[in-house]
Amino acid sequence: MKKSGKPDNNRGRSGGKAKAMPKSRSAKAETPKQNAAKETRLNKYIANAGVCSRREADKLIVAGEIKVNGQVITELGYKVEPTDKVVFKGRKLSPEKPVYVLLNKPKDFITTTDDPENRRTVMELVKNACEERIYPVGRLDRNTTGLLLFTNDGELARKLAHPSHNVKKIYKVELDKSITKEDFAKIEQGLELEDGLAMVDGLAIVDNNKKTLGIEIHIGKNRIVRRIFEHLGYEVIKLDRVMYGPLDKLNLPRGKWRFLSDKEIAKLKRLN
Questions:
Q1: 8, 108, 115, 141: which one is catalytic?
Q2: Cα(139)–Cα(146) distance, rounded to whole angstroms?
Q3: Which of 22, 27, 108, 182 could be bridged to 69 by S-S, CB 3.0 to 4.6 A?
Q4: Dihedral angle of Cα 128, 129, 130, 136, to the nearest 10 degrees
Q5: pLDDT tens per residue across span 94-138
Q6: Catalytic residue at 262?
Q7: Are 211 and 177 spatial neighbours (Cβ–Cβ below 8 Å)?
């Protein structure tokens, strides 16, 4: 049983049946001092998860809105450990405060949290952003530059990655040769690739030599933009993601990162 800092209220009153409290799942015995160092007050845990303030969290606890390891907890001052599962309205909470970091990715960095071949990863570029463990949402291949979002908000990350939410992405594409009217029309109408139909949401030529284009797309298939043009015999010289949902690269130099504003976070969470 965890320590709450209050007298034990797990005993039945007037001979009543004792109510079972969640048990720690720790497989290794630890000293009381070690356990105390890892414990967090439940209201702080809820606040750090971004649900509400600590005072509002106390109200949720008293109202029986919070479960720990499947048990409803109504005791103020109750403490939880990192291994405990805390749930609010059917959603598992993260013990860390949500963090949202936007990177303007340069070339020659791979989008992974770890690489067995010791190649440079995008995690090197955001390692000093925060103490929380963040990870990239989706991926950009090694030679693709542009916007890449990092977060520890698993719920939002899953939402953005799922194709049903149609997150808009705009890329600037530089080709090895001018695109023809026929190929431009084929891309607009949708191309049948080896893994299915590739539909774009918008396509535009942005220079006089017709080698640089803007393409808007929401499907998240692997290397989809490069494969669209390669299918028609073009080599993609440069590929840069200039918009990701409502986010853009304004005032964000290559290789640099910034935190999202509250307004940007709200826009991401409102995406259908």
A1: 141
A2: 11
A3: 22
A4: -110
A5: 777 789 999 999 999 999 988 889 999 999 999 999 988 899 998
A6: no
A7: yes
